[in-house]
Amino acid sequence: MLKVLFLCTENACRSQMAEGLVNYYLAGKVKAFSAGVAPTRVNPKAIQVMAEIGIDIRHQRSKSVDDLTGERFDLVITVCDQAQEQCPLFPGQTKMLHVSFPDPGGATGSEGEILAAFRQVAADMKNILIPLLEKEYRKKARTQV
Asked: Where are the domains of the chain?
């Protein structure tokens, strides 16, 4: 199994959504975790939008990267530019990637426009991260044969 950590600043939207998407679509192949460099709380709109596509992240909590000390990850993916700049070092053979997504938590406008921003980020994450991690999983599986 491939272990991946999604790292963002607050661990409120993007990293939480990525964790939920990956654990849903790649269950049994990839185990996703998320954390933040300055965690706050899971954004209720992230929970709402993920529920719309059948993924329940209600029980996920915002965590500091320090909460995962001692965990070994095959891959750490920063999903925002600030987290990339502040990303701590990970021991061992951890591969680091940066795949930035806009922060839907910063969206303004009507309720519908804000939810649309969350939906767009969720769709973009699914379209980018799932194929990327399927490829990483296959690479890892080939090297373990």
From this structure: 2-143
Burial state string for 65-76 with b = 16 or more CB within 10 A and e = fewer than 16: beebeeeebbbb
> 105-140, pLDDT tens digit by residue?
999 999 999 999 999 999 999 999 999 999 999 998
**80 is an active site residue:** yes
Residue 50: CB partners within 8 Å, gap ≥ 6? 17, 20, 21, 56, 57, 122
Q: Is 8 a catalytic residue?
A: yes
Q: Which residues pair with 8 in a beta bridge?
A: 36
**Residue tagged active-site, from 38, 87, 96, 107:** 87
> Alpha helix (H) ranges present in 53-110?
81-86
**pTM, full prediction:** 0.92
**87 a catalytic residue:** yes
Find out whether 122 and 50 touch, Cβ atoms under 8 Å.
Answer: yes
Which of 4, 8, 50, 75 is labelled catalytic? 8
Q: Which of 80, 83, 117, 129 is catalytic?
A: 80
With a CB cutoff of 8 Å and minimum separation 6, the contacts of 89 are none
Q: What class, spelled out in words, does domain 2-143 have in CATH?
A: alpha beta
